[in-house]
Write a structure and sequence with these properties.
Strand content: under 5%
Number of strands: 0
Low-confidence stretches: 1-5, 108-115
Order of helices and strands: HHHH
Radius of gyration: 17 Å
Helix content: 40-55%
Distance between the termini: 58 Å
Mean pLDDT: 78
Structural class: mainly alpha
């Protein structure tokens, strides 16, 4: 079986291979690009989490929060909870945790006043 290339020149995705340890500056650039490339919050967080499994969630939360303006109302702990929800519960888990956070936008603001939510 052929060995997978581990040289950055040979494989631009070498950083996805198991066991790769990236310098924080490298990881931060990639996380910024991923956050900018995925307009949907769930998708962006999922992709960052899936492509950086070796980084602690606290670090991922801080980085994602830095590059996603839609997370300004949330604490780092809230973002860590969202990452955990994505990992354990997928989209439905993410949505459930997002609804319970203090800074989350409330449904019904500007909605129909006669509809109880």
């Amino acid at each position: 079986m052929d060995e997978l290339p581990r040289d950055a020149d040979a494989d631009p995705l070498h950083w996805l291979l198991p066991g790769h340890r990236a310098a924080p500056a490298e990881a931060l650039k990639r996380i910024q690009a991923l956050c900018a490339g995925w307009p949907d919050l769930h998708a962006a967080m999922f992709v960052v989490l899936a492509t950086h499994p070796g980084l602690p969630r606290e670090m991922l939360a801080a980085a994602i929060k830095q590059f996603r303006g839609d997370l300004d109302a949330y604490t780092r702990e809230d973002v860590m909870g969202l990452l955990t929800a994505i990992w354990n519960g997928g989209k439905s888990g993410f949505d459930a945790v997002l609804r319970t956070r203090a800074g989350s936008p409330r449904k019904g603001a500007g909605g129909l006043s006669w509809v109880k939510e």
